[in-house]
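Issue 218. Parser rejects a valid record. Input:
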Amino acid sequence: MSSLLFVLGCAQPALVLYNTGTGKEESMWGMAILLTGWLGVFVMQVGWFANPLLLLTLLLLLMGKYRGAYWTGVVTVLVGLSSLSWYLNPIPADEGGSPDRQLELLHPTLGYFFWMGSLLVGPITATILGRREAVKQDDRALQGATGLGEGGASR
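Output the parser choked on:
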């Protein structure tokens, strides 16, 4: 599910920006952000780094480390949300860094919401699977304590 939402996020416009240099609105597609977003670290935009954290979250889920996956997933979502700080801090529209040519975030669009959905899948899945695992362990402990087997009959 996370992968599907991630791909949908990349295939859609994710952000609508205002270019102060040209005076025009521009749409930024998810794939363009995926390919160039790591450069955001130079202008204090770290939202892109939710992507490698998402991979880590999914790996932890596959390994059955639900608590680690949950907390990594929470951090992943928070890092992803940090990309909205673009509202407060416009970024340079080109490599010149002129204050006259900035990209201001007007609003996120469908691609951003698909991407955030893909980030949310990790901690939600970790919560569900972690609870199922805890219930199974409780059932096994109860069966061992009462001496009852699988069918409820005494051994």
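Fixed in the parser; the record now loads. The radius of gyration is 22 Å.
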